[in-house]
Amino acid sequence: MIKLIASDLDGTLLQNGARTLSDTVIEQIKQLKKMGILFVAASGRQYTNLRRLFEPVCDEIAYVCENGAMVVYKGKILHKDVFERELAEEILHSILKKERAELVVSGEKTVYLQPKTEDFRKYMIDFVKNNTTILPDIFQVPEDMIKISVYEENSAEFIAPFWKKAFGDRATVVTSGLSWLDMMPMSADKGNGIRVLKRHLLITEEECAAFGDNFNDLEMLQEVAYGFAVGSAKKEVRQTAGRTAQTVEAVLEKIIEQGGNWYE
Predict the structure, then answer these.
(1) Labelling 4: which of 32, 95, 102, 231 has CA 20 to 30 A away?
(2) DSSP strand pairing (4-7 vs 208-212)
(3) Which residues form the signal peptide (predicted)?
(4) In the CATH scheme, what architecture does the domain 85-185 have?
């Protein structure tokens, strides 16, 4: 019996540039809830952004936010990873030196920017729609730093080797879409987020399924018995998942039809 279903968002649950969830997904999450199956939004996005996205069911799901650096269930933070301040500031200095690189620092309920361009400020506020705080000095972030992100348009995979070489031995470094590269404390990834929920809910790998498309989903897919690579998933993601699907909705429908029982 499936008891937990986790899904990445951008490129997985949200495909072809979609910015809002379909009515179908919302209704499926409600049906899963009635069946005793918990839906988990597993994303690089911040908690407040995810709650807005899932507004009709925001109190009925769990959240693996910031690529696993924070886990929230029933309004309670079950787990949070934070950077040591010295390392965080070293990373910030390095990003500021890169002319094309914009940076974003994630706190619990807001992200902090010291935007290099007005276009990026507008992009974060009007398109990404995060809770956003603009700082004249990014080193004055007034809370623990959960995640530090680098934004270079359509360049995430190109810049990844540089950042992995620079900080990969002291931080988790993953691409999170075409333009985003995320750095979190070493213990943070979506897989650890799923482990936190499994321990809290007293459920096993055999009772869990997950959907992903990018490198930041690999650890999550390794934590479940039933993994799916969706859409234009990376080769490594397809290999790790072992199954493919065109859409998350199609698989959720089959799970609902089968009453939560899994049949290959």
Answers:
(1) 231
(2) parallel
(3) none
(4) 2-Layer Sandwich (3.30)
